[in-house]
Protein backbone atom coordinates (compact mmCIF):
# COMPACT_ATOMS: atom_id res chain seq x y z
CA UNK A 1 0.00 0.00 0.00
CA UNK A 2 1.14 3.56 -0.74
CA UNK A 3 4.76 2.48 -1.26
CA UNK A 4 7.20 -0.43 -1.29
CA UNK A 5 8.34 -1.91 1.99
CA UNK A 6 12.02 -2.41 1.06
CA UNK A 7 14.29 0.50 2.04
CA UNK A 8 16.54 2.19 -0.53
CA UNK A 9 19.65 0.93 1.28
CA UNK A 10 18.32 -2.64 1.21
CA UNK A 11 17.54 -2.33 -2.51
CA UNK A 12 21.08 -1.07 -3.13
CA UNK A 13 22.60 -3.94 -1.14
CA UNK A 14 20.48 -6.40 -3.13
CA UNK A 15 21.63 -4.83 -6.41
CA UNK A 16 25.27 -5.08 -5.30
CA UNK A 17 24.81 -8.73 -4.35
CA UNK A 18 23.12 -9.42 -7.70
CA UNK A 19 26.02 -7.81 -9.58
CA UNK A 20 28.49 -9.90 -7.56
CA UNK A 21 26.54 -13.09 -8.33
CA UNK A 22 27.47 -12.91 -12.00
CA UNK A 23 23.89 -13.71 -13.02
CA UNK A 24 22.16 -11.57 -15.66
CA UNK A 25 19.95 -8.84 -14.11
CA UNK A 26 16.99 -7.83 -16.27
CA UNK A 27 15.82 -4.18 -15.97
CA UNK A 28 12.85 -3.19 -18.17
CA UNK A 29 12.25 0.54 -18.47
CA UNK A 30 9.24 1.78 -16.49
CA UNK A 31 6.94 4.26 -18.23
CA UNK A 32 5.50 5.35 -14.88
CA UNK A 33 5.15 4.06 -11.29
CA UNK A 34 2.28 1.74 -12.31
CA UNK A 35 4.40 -0.10 -14.87
CA UNK A 36 7.17 -0.38 -12.28
CA UNK A 37 4.75 -2.44 -10.20
CA UNK A 38 3.99 -4.56 -13.26
CA UNK A 39 7.72 -5.13 -13.83
CA UNK A 40 8.05 -6.37 -10.26
CA UNK A 41 4.92 -8.53 -10.54
CA UNK A 42 6.40 -10.27 -13.59
CA UNK A 43 9.53 -11.27 -11.74
CA UNK A 44 12.14 -8.98 -13.25
CA UNK A 45 15.27 -8.02 -11.36
CA UNK A 46 15.12 -4.25 -11.44
CA UNK A 47 13.44 -1.16 -12.85
CA UNK A 48 15.18 1.19 -15.29
CA UNK A 49 14.30 4.90 -15.51
CA UNK A 50 15.03 5.82 -19.12
CA UNK A 51 15.98 9.36 -20.08
CA UNK A 52 14.35 8.82 -23.44
CA UNK A 53 11.09 7.83 -21.72
CA UNK A 54 11.17 10.70 -19.21
CA UNK A 55 11.72 13.16 -22.06
CA UNK A 56 9.17 11.51 -24.38
CA UNK A 57 6.53 11.62 -21.64
CA UNK A 58 7.15 15.39 -21.54
CA UNK A 59 6.87 15.45 -25.34
CA UNK A 60 10.56 16.34 -25.63
CA UNK A 61 13.20 14.72 -27.86
CA UNK A 62 16.02 12.88 -26.06
CA UNK A 63 18.58 15.63 -26.59
CA UNK A 64 19.36 16.74 -23.05
CA UNK A 65 16.34 19.03 -22.52
CA UNK A 66 15.13 17.45 -19.26
CA UNK A 67 16.34 18.84 -15.94
CA UNK A 68 17.74 16.93 -12.97
CA UNK A 69 14.66 18.10 -11.05
CA UNK A 70 12.36 16.41 -13.56
CA UNK A 71 14.45 13.23 -13.71
CA UNK A 72 14.90 12.97 -9.93
CA UNK A 73 11.21 13.65 -9.37
CA UNK A 74 10.19 10.87 -11.76
CA UNK A 75 12.83 8.53 -10.35
CA UNK A 76 11.46 9.10 -6.83
CA UNK A 77 7.88 8.41 -7.94
CA UNK A 78 9.02 5.14 -9.53
CA UNK A 79 11.54 3.97 -6.91
CA UNK A 80 9.09 4.39 -4.03
CA UNK A 81 6.55 1.90 -5.42
CA UNK A 82 8.90 -1.03 -6.09
CA UNK A 83 10.97 -3.34 -3.90
CA UNK A 84 13.32 -3.80 -6.85
CA UNK A 85 16.47 -1.69 -7.35
CA UNK A 86 15.92 1.31 -9.62
CA UNK A 87 18.68 2.30 -12.06
CA UNK A 88 18.40 5.85 -13.41
CA UNK A 89 19.64 7.32 -16.70
CA UNK A 90 21.44 10.49 -15.57
CA UNK A 91 22.60 11.42 -19.10
CA UNK A 92 25.87 13.38 -18.83
CA UNK A 93 25.29 14.21 -15.16
CA UNK A 94 23.60 17.56 -15.86
CA UNK A 95 26.72 19.73 -16.06
CA UNK A 96 30.25 19.89 -14.68
CA UNK A 97 31.69 17.46 -12.09
CA UNK A 98 30.13 19.44 -9.23
CA UNK A 99 26.76 19.12 -10.96
CA UNK A 100 27.36 15.38 -11.31
CA UNK A 101 27.98 15.22 -7.56
CA UNK A 102 24.67 16.98 -6.91
CA UNK A 103 22.91 14.64 -9.36
CA UNK A 104 24.17 11.60 -7.45
CA UNK A 105 22.95 12.96 -4.14
CA UNK A 106 19.54 13.97 -5.50
CA UNK A 107 19.04 10.48 -6.96
CA UNK A 108 20.20 8.88 -3.72
CA UNK A 109 17.63 11.03 -1.90
CA UNK A 110 15.06 9.87 -4.48
CA UNK A 111 15.64 6.27 -3.40
CA UNK A 112 17.42 5.10 -6.54
CA UNK A 113 19.83 2.17 -6.36
CA UNK A 114 22.18 3.59 -8.97
CA UNK A 115 22.64 5.75 -12.04
CA UNK A 116 24.67 5.92 -15.21
CA UNK A 117 26.70 8.89 -16.43
CA UNK A 118 27.71 9.05 -20.10
CA UNK A 119 30.69 10.58 -21.90
CA UNK A 120 28.75 12.47 -24.54
CA UNK A 121 29.09 16.24 -24.96
CA UNK A 122 26.28 18.50 -23.76
CA UNK A 123 23.69 18.61 -25.22
CA UNK A 124 23.64 14.83 -25.50
CA UNK A 125 21.54 12.89 -27.97
CA UNK A 126 20.09 9.40 -27.99
CA UNK A 127 23.00 6.96 -28.14
CA UNK A 128 21.58 5.28 -31.25
CA UNK A 129 21.44 8.47 -33.33
CA UNK A 130 24.22 9.43 -35.75
CA UNK A 131 26.27 12.58 -35.20
CA UNK A 132 27.07 11.98 -31.53
CA UNK A 133 30.18 13.55 -30.02
CA UNK A 134 32.08 12.50 -26.90
CA UNK A 135 34.06 14.64 -24.48
CA UNK A 136 37.77 13.97 -24.01
CA UNK A 137 38.54 11.00 -21.80
CA UNK A 138 39.81 13.06 -18.84
CA UNK A 139 36.61 15.11 -18.70
CA UNK A 140 34.61 11.89 -18.65
CA UNK A 141 36.86 10.44 -15.94
CA UNK A 142 36.25 13.53 -13.82
CA UNK A 143 32.51 12.99 -14.12
CA UNK A 144 32.84 9.42 -12.81
CA UNK A 145 35.28 10.41 -10.06
CA UNK A 146 32.90 13.15 -8.91
CA UNK A 147 29.98 10.71 -8.84
CA UNK A 148 31.92 8.13 -6.82
CA UNK A 149 33.14 10.79 -4.38
CA UNK A 150 29.67 12.29 -3.87
CA UNK A 151 27.64 9.23 -2.91
CA UNK A 152 26.75 8.85 0.75
CA UNK A 153 25.72 5.18 0.50
CA UNK A 154 28.70 3.07 -0.61
CA UNK A 155 26.23 0.59 -2.12
CA UNK A 156 24.83 3.21 -4.52
CA UNK A 157 25.89 1.96 -7.95
CA UNK A 158 27.75 4.36 -10.22
CA UNK A 159 27.73 3.11 -13.79
CA UNK A 160 29.88 4.70 -16.49
CA UNK A 161 28.48 4.77 -20.00
CA UNK A 162 30.66 5.23 -23.03
CA UNK A 163 29.19 6.26 -26.37
CA UNK A 164 32.62 6.08 -27.99
CA UNK A 165 32.12 2.98 -30.13
CA UNK A 166 29.94 4.82 -32.66
CA UNK A 167 32.13 7.96 -32.52
CA UNK A 168 35.84 7.15 -32.14
CA UNK A 169 35.74 3.36 -32.52
CA UNK A 170 36.22 0.26 -30.42
CA UNK A 171 39.86 0.88 -29.40
CA UNK A 172 38.93 4.20 -27.82
CA UNK A 173 35.78 2.72 -26.28
CA UNK A 174 37.87 0.00 -24.62
CA UNK A 175 40.47 2.52 -23.45
CA UNK A 176 37.73 4.65 -21.93
CA UNK A 177 36.06 1.65 -20.31
CA UNK A 178 39.32 0.81 -18.54
CA UNK A 179 39.81 4.43 -17.44
CA UNK A 180 36.26 4.69 -16.07
CA UNK A 181 36.69 1.43 -14.16
CA UNK A 182 39.95 2.76 -12.73
CA UNK A 183 38.07 5.94 -11.72
CA UNK A 184 35.76 3.81 -9.57
CA UNK A 185 32.83 2.92 -11.82
CA UNK A 186 30.95 -0.13 -10.47
CA UNK A 187 29.32 -1.02 -13.80
CA UNK A 188 30.13 -0.31 -17.43
CA UNK A 189 27.37 0.64 -19.87
CA UNK A 190 28.78 -0.03 -23.33
CA UNK A 191 26.35 1.91 -25.48
CA UNK A 192 25.22 0.97 -28.99
CA UNK A 193 27.23 -2.24 -29.21
CA UNK A 194 26.31 -3.70 -32.61
CA UNK A 195 26.49 -7.41 -31.68
CA UNK A 196 28.23 -10.25 -29.81
CA UNK A 197 31.73 -9.46 -31.08
CA UNK A 198 31.57 -5.95 -29.63
CA UNK A 199 30.49 -7.27 -26.25
CA UNK A 200 33.28 -9.86 -26.33
CA UNK A 201 35.87 -7.10 -26.86
CA UNK A 202 34.58 -5.04 -23.95
CA UNK A 203 34.11 -8.07 -21.69
CA UNK A 204 37.76 -9.04 -22.25
CA UNK A 205 38.93 -5.52 -21.44
CA UNK A 206 37.38 -4.80 -18.02
CA UNK A 207 36.77 -6.76 -14.82
CA UNK A 208 33.74 -4.79 -13.61
CA UNK A 209 30.15 -5.84 -14.48
CA UNK A 210 28.85 -4.84 -17.91
CA UNK A 211 25.39 -3.50 -18.89
CA UNK A 212 23.88 -4.22 -22.32
CA UNK A 213 21.25 -1.94 -23.83
CA UNK A 214 18.72 -3.96 -25.81
CA UNK A 215 16.77 -1.03 -27.23
CA UNK A 216 14.69 -1.41 -30.38
CA UNK A 217 15.16 0.25 -33.79
CA UNK A 218 18.76 1.35 -33.11
CA UNK A 219 22.30 0.16 -33.76
CA UNK A 220 22.22 -2.94 -31.55
CA UNK A 221 21.28 -6.47 -32.55
CA UNK A 222 18.60 -7.60 -30.07
CA UNK A 223 20.29 -10.45 -28.23
CA UNK A 224 18.29 -12.77 -25.96
CA UNK A 225 19.14 -13.38 -22.31
CA UNK A 226 20.85 -16.72 -22.95
CA UNK A 227 23.20 -15.10 -25.45
CA UNK A 228 23.88 -12.14 -23.16
CA UNK A 229 24.69 -14.52 -20.29
CA UNK A 230 27.03 -16.50 -22.52
CA UNK A 231 28.83 -13.23 -23.28
CA UNK A 232 29.34 -12.53 -19.58
CA UNK A 233 26.91 -9.59 -19.48
CA UNK A 234 25.64 -8.72 -15.99
CA UNK A 235 22.73 -6.30 -16.59
CA UNK A 236 20.40 -5.89 -19.54
CA UNK A 237 18.02 -2.94 -19.98
CA UNK A 238 14.95 -2.73 -22.19
CA UNK A 239 14.64 1.05 -21.81
CA UNK A 240 11.80 2.07 -24.14
CA UNK A 241 10.08 -1.26 -24.80
CA UNK A 242 7.03 -0.68 -22.61
CA UNK A 243 6.53 2.86 -23.89
CA UNK A 244 6.70 1.69 -27.48
CA UNK A 245 4.20 -1.11 -26.80
CA UNK A 246 1.83 1.21 -24.92
CA UNK A 247 1.89 3.89 -27.60
CA UNK A 248 1.24 1.35 -30.35
CA UNK A 249 -1.74 -0.05 -28.42
CA UNK A 250 -3.06 3.44 -27.69
CA UNK A 251 -2.87 4.37 -31.35
CA UNK A 252 -4.74 1.21 -32.35
CA UNK A 253 -7.40 2.06 -29.79
CA UNK A 254 -7.84 5.65 -30.94
CA UNK A 255 -8.09 4.48 -34.56
CA UNK A 256 -10.80 1.97 -33.66
CA UNK A 257 -12.69 4.46 -31.50
CA UNK A 258 -12.61 7.07 -34.28
CA UNK A 259 -13.68 4.63 -36.99
CA UNK A 260 -16.28 2.56 -35.12
CA UNK A 261 -17.61 5.03 -32.55
CA UNK A 262 -17.15 2.54 -29.71
CA UNK A 263 -14.40 0.62 -27.93
CA UNK A 264 -16.51 -2.52 -27.39
CA UNK A 265 -14.31 -4.62 -29.69
CA UNK A 266 -11.21 -3.57 -27.75
CA UNK A 267 -12.27 -4.85 -24.33
CA UNK A 268 -10.38 -8.15 -24.57
CA UNK A 269 -7.20 -6.15 -25.31
CA UNK A 270 -7.54 -4.02 -22.20
CA UNK A 271 -6.28 -4.54 -18.63
CA UNK A 272 -9.49 -5.37 -16.78
CA UNK A 273 -10.60 -3.12 -13.92
CA UNK A 274 -10.17 -5.97 -11.46
CA UNK A 275 -6.59 -6.50 -12.60
CA UNK A 276 -5.80 -2.81 -12.23
CA UNK A 277 -7.31 -2.80 -8.75
CA UNK A 278 -5.32 -5.90 -7.80
CA UNK A 279 -2.12 -4.29 -9.07
CA UNK A 280 -2.92 -1.17 -7.03
CA UNK A 281 -3.63 -3.34 -3.98
CA UNK A 282 -7.03 -1.68 -3.33
CA UNK A 283 -7.73 -4.28 -0.68
CA UNK A 284 -4.97 -3.04 1.63
CA UNK A 285 -6.48 0.47 1.61
CA UNK A 286 -9.77 -0.95 2.86
CA UNK A 287 -7.96 -2.76 5.65
CA UNK A 288 -6.15 0.48 6.54
CA UNK A 289 -9.44 2.37 6.75
CA UNK A 290 -11.06 -0.34 8.86
CA UNK A 291 -8.14 -0.29 11.27
CA UNK A 292 -8.16 3.48 11.60
CA UNK A 293 -11.88 4.18 11.63
CA UNK A 294 -12.67 1.24 13.87
CA UNK A 295 -9.80 2.06 16.15
CA UNK A 296 -10.88 2.23 19.79
CA UNK A 297 -8.67 3.24 22.71
C1 LIG B 1 19.15 3.96 -22.94
C2 LIG B 1 18.76 5.38 -23.36
O1 LIG B 1 19.80 6.27 -23.00
C3 LIG B 1 17.52 5.83 -22.66
O2 LIG B 1 17.39 7.07 -22.50
O3 LIG B 1 16.67 4.99 -22.35
C4 LIG B 1 18.48 5.48 -24.87
C5 LIG B 1 17.45 4.46 -25.32
C6 LIG B 1 16.90 4.72 -26.73
O4 LIG B 1 16.87 5.88 -27.16
O5 LIG B 1 16.50 3.75 -27.39
C7 LIG B 1 19.81 5.36 -25.61
O6 LIG B 1 20.45 6.42 -25.81
O7 LIG B 1 20.19 4.22 -25.94
MG1 LIG C 1 19.19 8.04 -22.26
TrEMBL record:
Pathway named in the protein's UniProt entry: Organic acid metabolism; propanoate degradation
InterPro entries per UniProt: ICL/PEPM, Isocitrate_lyase_ph_CS, PrpB, Pyrv/PenolPyrv_kinase-like_dom, Pyrv_kinase-like_dom_sf
Enzyme class: lyase
Entry-linked SUPFAM superfamilies: Phosphoenolpyruvate/pyruvate domain
Cofactor(s) required, per the database record: Mg(2+)
Protein EC: 4.1.3.30
GO molecular function: metal ion binding; methylisocitrate lyase activity
Source taxon at top rank: Bacteria
Catalytic reaction equation(s): 3-hydroxybutane-1,2,3-tricarboxylate = pyruvate + succinate; (2S,3R)-3-hydroxybutane-1,2,3-tricarboxylate = pyruvate + succinate
Pfam families attached to this UniProt entry: PEP_mutase
Keyword terms: Lyase, Magnesium, Metal-binding
PROSITE patterns the UniProt entry points to: ISOCITRATE_LYASE
PANTHER family linked: CARBOXYVINYL-CARBOXYPHOSPHONATE PHOSPHORYLMUTASE, CHLOROPLASTIC, PHOSPHOENOLPYRUVATE CARBOXYLASE
Protein task: Catalyzes the thermodynamically favored C-C bond cleavage of (2R,3S)-2-methylisocitrate to yield pyruvate and succinate. Involved in the methylcitric acid cycle. Catalyzes the cleavage of 2-methylisocitrate to yield pyruvate and succinate.
Family: Belongs to the isocitrate lyase/PEP mutase superfamily. Methylisocitrate lyase family.
Protein name: Methylisocitrate lyase
Amino acid sequence: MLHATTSPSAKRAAFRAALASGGLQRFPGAVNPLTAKLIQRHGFDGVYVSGAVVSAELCLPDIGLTTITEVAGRAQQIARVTDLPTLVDADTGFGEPMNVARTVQLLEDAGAAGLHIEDQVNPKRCGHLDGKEVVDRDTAVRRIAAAVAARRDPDFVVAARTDALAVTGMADAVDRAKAYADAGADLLFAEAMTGPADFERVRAAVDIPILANMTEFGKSELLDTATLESLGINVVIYPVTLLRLAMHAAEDGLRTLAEHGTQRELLDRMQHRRDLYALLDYESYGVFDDDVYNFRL
